[in-house]
Amino acid sequence: MPGVTHVLLYSRRGCHLCDEAREVIEAARRQAPFEFEEIFIEGNDDLERAYGVRLPVVLVDGHERFEYQVDAEAFRALLA
């Protein structure tokens, strides 16, 4: 079974939960490489409506897996 290939983080600058989510993702990425993309939602009305009150939101291979907080153990389990 192929591993995770792409992780997308929707975030906002100055968001401490977003910073924590990024740290969890980057730490896992050092152990199991995958493509990582971060999109800051400021200035995008559609993204603000979709994600504005529940950041961070993390998609793994196109599927929403986490919001508000990324559990490091659960994230690593997705990579396995």
Task: Detail the topology: elements first, then pairings.
Layout: E1 6-11, H1 16-31, E2 35-40, H2 45-51, E3 57-60, E4 63-67, H3 72-79
Parallel strand pairs: 1-2
Antiparallel strand pairs: 1-3, 3-4
How much is the radius of gyration in Å?
12 Å
* CATH superfamily grouping: Glutaredoxin
Helix fraction, binned, reads: 25-40%
Total separate domains: 1
CATH topology, anyone?
Glutaredoxin
From the N-terminal CA to the C-terminal CA, the straight-line distance is: 10 Å
CATH C-level name? Alpha Beta
Instruction: Write the CATH architecture name.
Output: 3-Layer(aba) Sandwich
CA-based shape: globular
- Major sheet attributes: 4 strands, mixed
Low-confidence parts: none
Q: Which strands sit side by side, in order, in the main sheet?
A: 2-1-3-4
Beta-strand content bin: 25-35%
Structural class: alpha+beta
Order of helices and strands: EHEHEEH
**Number of helical runs?**
3
Secondary structure tally: strands? 4
Overall pLDDT level: 93
Highlighted features:
80 residues, alpha+beta, Glutaredoxin, 3 helices, globular
Walkthrough of the structure:
The protein has three helices and four strands; from the N terminus they run βαβαββα. With 80 residues, it is an alpha+beta fold. The chain has a single domain (6-79), classed as Glutaredoxin. A hairpin with a 2-residue loop joins strand 3 (57-60) and strand 4. The longest helix is centred in the N-terminal third of the chain and has 16 residues, at 16-31. The model has no long low-confidence stretch (mean pLDDT 93).
